[in-house]
Amino acid sequence: MRTSLLAVFCVTVAAALAVATGQSAARFEDWRQAVRESQSALGWEYIRFHGVLNDDMSVVIAPNEYSFFNIDQVYDFLLSINMRPIVELSFMPTAYASGNETIFYYKGNITPPKDYAQWDDLITKLAQHLVDRYGLEEVSQWYFEVWNEPNCGFWSGNQTDYFTLLQHTYTALKSVSPLIRVGGPATCQSQWIAETVAFCKQNGIQLDFISTHEYPTDPTTYPVRDLMHDIFAATKAAAGGIPVIYTEFNSGLFSDTPNHDLPYAASFLVNMVAKTQGLVEIASYWAVSDVFEEGGQDPTPFHDMYGIVTNIGVPKPAFHGLKLLRQAGTDRVAVSTVGDANTTSVWATRTDNEVQVFITNFDYFEFPIQNYTVTVTVAGVAAKGSPVNSLYYLIDDTHVNPRAVWEAMGSPTYPTPAQIVALHEASTLHAQQLPYSVVGSDITFTFNLVPYSTVAVFIPLQFY
Ligand SMILES: *[C@@H]1O[C@H](CO)[C@@H](O)[C@H](O)[C@H]1NC(C)=O
Ligand SMILES: *[C@@H]1O[C@H](CO)[C@@H](O)[C@H](O)[C@H]1NC(C)=O
Ligand SMILES: *[C@@H]1O[C@H](CO)[C@@H](O)[C@H](O)[C@H]1NC(C)=O
Ligand SMILES: *[C@@H]1O[C@H](CO)[C@@H](O)[C@H](O)[C@H]1NC(C)=O
């Protein structure tokens, strides 16, 4: 079976912020460094961020007078590191806004335009500028998403008002080129999908993608096992054949229980990728870095912020979970398991030279979880020799858990250079020899998995 596992992953960030909020150049460089390093390790293809039209991006100088200089700086950088933007068209430039309501530390204006002729002009000129600068062949591989979470406090209008914005933005972008990909509704909690599809059908709008967000802690969804699968499948069905992009998700947006910093997030990801395969075109992890200023920049390195990299550049377990996943092959391999319980999952892939086995012991915090022992058998691997060079990597409470090491330091708000070195060391994947036994031509191995652990096993195939 041909499968596509990881082509679908990209990352989301709250990012134009890095250039947009007038922060110091050093701070901007911190953010870029996190993006550069994670792109290089994880192979992100796309990145999305709020606020590209915010006042601090200096886009609308005066009515009908624009500067796209800062936007160019952001997109030039992304293209230079082989990434493309998912252009979230937000928020409202004050000069064009119908009201004063803003969101977050950086004061994104969340009101509809006071005059749609002005908004249409801005969107058309921006799209034309991007096509002029980067070429239609390039820009037609980007995604243009209309606004962010109009149903969750990021839009002062109602659903009808949002659909007006969607229709105007769609028409403006398509007037520049029908090849520009336009989508929405960018909602939180996987909402408004059927309504959006119906509105578009009634109004002759052919969206290129449907976008929405889901977090396992969203108030509308009490977690069930395979929550992300069930939600993605429902959205795909409601989208009626239009490709679906989850432009935000992670292991839990708000939670009393820390999760983003912990091995929990890695096992969530490794578990989810196999289970949601084929349902969505892109799933975009929120967010890339804890250099993140929706609530102002928090100095604490581990405060359960969304990044896969802390504000001091230390990768979190989720980063390493994605790094292991990046090595998955595109063909699934059958494995048999003994002793697996409700919370363990085992799946395997292969490439020409290797079998990769991914094992997690994961469930949402709401469910009971305990230590489990899992024995995995991969058939046929030992037929032509002994897989002596097989390796495994482990992420759990005591492996690749820099937050635990930081807490053992006394949770310093401003770690010293020596402490930062120690945190990087604590956040390193270590290869270990796989203890295995051969039964006929099959190889078998056993792991005792503490809750929220992730194991990735790599078996070289020259023995086939
Ligand atoms: C915006 O705020 C200013 C100053 O508080 C006020 O005078 C103005 O009426 C407000 N405009 C709108 C559209 O709410
Ligand atoms: C949405 O708001 C507009 C005003 O912007 C109003 O005319 C319309 O009745 C509202 N629609 C609904 C369904 O509440
Ligand atoms: C698995 O789930 C079922 C139903 O929720 C439960 O009855 C059973 O005890 C669980 N088994 C284990 C090993 O967790
Ligand atoms: C789970 O396994 C760990 C590591 O082997 C051990 O320290 C812990 O006591 C075990 N917990 C339970 C509930 O058996």
From TrEMBL:
GO terms for biological process: xylan catabolic process. Gene3D superfamilies: Glycosidases (3.20.20.80), Glycosyl hydrolase domain, family 39 (2.60.40.1500). GO terms for molecular function: hydrolase activity, hydrolyzing O-glycosyl compounds. InterPro entries: GH, GH39_as, GH39_cat, Glyco_hydro_39, Glycosyl_Hydrolase_39. PROSITE patterns: GLYCOSYL_HYDROL_F39. Residues 1-18 form the signal peptide. Coiled coil: none annotated. SUPFAM superfamilies: (Trans)glycosidases, Glycosyl hydrolase domain. Keywords: Carbohydrate metabolism, Glycosidase, Hydrolase, Polysaccharide degradation, Signal, Xylan degradation. The active site is at E149 (proton donor). Residues 25-432 form the Glycosyl hydrolases family 39 N-terminal catalytic domain. Belongs to the glycosyl hydrolase 39 family. This is Xylanase. It comes from Capsaspora owczarzaki (strain ATCC 30864).
